[in-house]
């Protein structure tokens, strides 16, 4: 987990501040995917050097969550190399800014395509992942979502779904069904739900819960 990273200018980087985070780190700055530059296949992997794209929002609503996958993937790489799994390879991250937005997700995926990257960790959030996943589907870019619960992000149906998208976070349908079944086990017959978040995730899981709870004979109501 890393601190929120603002889009810091070179001048701002000269002034010490925790808010600048990794954006002012020379290593990170040297490994940023840039769609506005001519980086055709710049990050393409080979038999001894593997580059993994890291979707990282540098602005927007992720400021609230303060969660990014970069430190986790770098720790995982170090651990794998220490165990001898990747002893013959150099594995490094390439940072793709998804701007914490839906359009930014597509832009980051296009940056991957341009740079020759074919595997990504992220993006964070279903709305961003859906747009990035469409690009991934078109160009066969593999992605692993970190917090992506939308049922639409399914790799079960290659024709209509996202065959190159996987996730490490259960879908809304899985979570809400489990909660409904738990309520049934406790003999709960009436449930009121509260959802005050602007994020679609909460609406999705609450709506799915109402559906599953109804099938189990419970009466539900939503309070907003």
From TrEMBL:
Where does the source fall among the domains of life? Eukaryota
Keyword Nucleotide-binding assigned to the entry: answer is no
Keywords recorded for this protein, A-Z: Membrane, Transmembrane, Transmembrane helix
For the keyword 4Fe-4S, the answer is: no
- InterPro entries, per database record: ANF_lig-bd_rcpt (IPR001828), BCAA_transport (IPR051010), Peripla_BP_I (IPR028082)
UniProt xrefs under Pfam families? ANF_receptor
Residues in the signal sequence: none
| Receptor ligand binding region domain boundaries | 70-217
**Any idea what this protein is called?**
Receptor ligand binding region domain-containing protein
Q: Which organism is it from?
A: Mucochytrium quahogii
């Amino acid at each position: 987990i890393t601190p929120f990273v603002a889009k810091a200018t070179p001048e701002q980087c000269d002034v010490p501040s925790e808010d600048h985070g990794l954006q002012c780190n020379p290593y990170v700055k040297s490994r940023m995917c840039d769609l506005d530059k001519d980086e055709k296949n710049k990050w393409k992997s080979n038999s001894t050097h593997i580059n993994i794209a890291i979707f990282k929002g540098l602005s927007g609503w992720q400021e609230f969550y303060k969660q990014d996958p970069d430190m986790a993937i770098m720790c995982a790489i170090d651990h794998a190399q220490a165990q001898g799994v990747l002893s013959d390879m150099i594995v490094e991250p390439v940072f793709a800014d998804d701007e914490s937005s839906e359009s930014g997700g597509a832009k980051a995926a296009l940056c991957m395509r341009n740079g020759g990257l074919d595997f990504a960790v992220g993006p964070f959030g279903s709305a961003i992942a859906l747009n990035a996943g469409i690009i991934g589907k078109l160009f066969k870019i593999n992605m692993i979502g970190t917090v992506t619960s939308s049922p639409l992000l399914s790799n079960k149906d290659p024709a209509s779904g996202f065959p190159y998208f996987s996730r490490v976070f259960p879908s809304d349908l899985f979570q809400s069904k489990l909660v409904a079944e738990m309520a049934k086990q406790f003999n709960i017959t009436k449930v009121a739900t509260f959802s005050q978040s602007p994020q679609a995730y909460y609406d999705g899981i609450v709506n799915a819960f109402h559906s599953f709870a109804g099938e189990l004979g419970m009466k539900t109501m939503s309070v907003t």
